[in-house]
Write a structure and sequence with these properties.
Elements lengths: L1 E6 L5 E7 L2 E8 L5 H16 L6 E7 L5 H18 L3 E4 L1 H6 L8 E9 L2 E10 L2 E4 L4 E3 L1 H11 L3 E4 L1 H5 L1 H4 L5 E3 L9 H13 L18 H15 L2
Parallel strand pairs: 1-4, 4-5, 6-10, 10-11
Antiparallel strand pairs: 1-2, 2-3, 6-7, 7-8, 7-9
């Protein structure tokens, strides 16, 4: 089964195609944050290069977040539209899971940390298990110093991944026994998305397009601004 993976939860836009033989092709771009303008042409280009027609896709996997509101909305909406047009099911996976999975070779605690803007990060902790990693904490939105304190309190060696770890590198550098991964591990990978989705597809662990919902963890910036303006208006009455 061919799986199309769509990953847009961060400033990076990514897509990938893969089957039982592994990832066949992938595309990633992290400049400009023009998710809507980049994604559809990237999917078309990728299919052309891999000599795969969209009608051959049997399932669509999407990164459901947490992440940046606009990027998530673009990726999930595009995935749903394609799934409905092709009449295929979907698989939703977390951006934090996608960050941690490529680090499955380490025996250290893994902290996946995504820059949430406004001085906050999205984060979760993982441990190595046979065949991959397992999340050992619920995804959270917190200030980076709170995540750093959590790592310090755990008192064990920790590998940091994600653009949140990059942005707040100075803060995390003060945490004993914590080490950042390479800059190449800053963003979730569409290739990792396809790798994680393929076994689920074989087990038919699908959802229908209307069941896929983004994981925001906090209100969108636009909603927050609207609520603030409403409160200010009420206070002036």
């Amino acid at each position: 089964m061919i799986v199309l993976g769509i990953e847009t939860a961060t400033p990076q836009v990514g897509c990938a195609l893969g089957g039982h033989e592994g990832v066949l092709t992938s595309f990633h771009a992290a400049r400009g944050r023009r998710h809507a303008e980049t994604l559809t042409p990237a999917i078309a280009f990728m299919c052309e290069q891999a000599d795969i027609e969209l009608k051959e896709v049997g399932a669509i996997a999407v990164d459901v977040g947490p992440g940046l509101f606009t990027g998530l909305r673009v990726g999930v909406a595009t995935g749903k539209a394609l799934a409905q047009a092709l009449r295929v099911p979907m698989i939703g996976l977390s951006s934090l899971d996608l960050l941690a999975y490529p680090q499955r070779g380490t025996r250290r605690l893994i902290a996946a940390v995504i820059d949430a803007r406004r001085g906050e990060v999205f984060a979760a902790f993982y441990r190595k298990v046979p065949g991959g990693v397992q999340r050992v904490s619920e995804p959270m939105v917190a200030r980076p110093e709170e995540v750093a304190a959590d790592i310090e309190a755990r008192g064990e060696e920790c590998l940091l991944v994600g653009d949140g770890a990059v942005r707040y590198a100075a803060m995390f550098s003060d945490v004993s026994r914590a080490e950042p991964a390479s800059v190449g591990a800053a963003y979730p990978s569409a290739a990792a998305l396809v790798e994680l989705a393929q076994p689920r597809a074989l087990r038919e662990e699908f959802v229908q397009p209307w069941e896929v919902q983004p994981l925001y963890l906090r209100p969108a910036d636009a909603d927050t601004d609207w609520e603030r303006r409403l409160q200010e208006k009420g206070g002036r009455r």
